[in-house]
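Sequence in, structure out.
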Amino acid sequence: MLTCCKWRGPISRLWLSALDETSIRKALDNLLPGADTEPLYQAGLARARADWLVGINLTRAYTLTDRSRGGKSLLSMGRVQTPTLKLIVDRDLEIKAFKPVNYFDLTGRFSTDAHGFVAQWVPHGVFVDQEDRCTNRPAAIELAQQLMGQRGRIDQAETRHK
């Protein structure tokens, strides 16, 4: 845009690596001089031009090849969309191959003088599958019965701002 407007004045660029408030404030306090980021701008411009040239030419080539074999679809190609579509296809195949597994959560309601809270049992050892879920129903029922009505102790508490 600056090139189209023939801007020749100073340029500062905002370089963000994350979109949380702290990162944005830090980046705004450390704007980069345009001369330091010119190679990054040129690289981005080159990628955009290559995407357009490769995309338009490969799309035409693949579409015409497909149509010469009786196809009727537009076969769209591009540097970004092709790997993105592969990710989507791979995920779709994972979903089709999914096999449901029964597992059991053990959740307890607790209260202190000041607060009430819910906690969940973190199973381990022979009770868990590859995803650390309890797959042993009798063990979960037995533990629930053993703990029913018992007093607990908080050994560690952690508070995080999210």
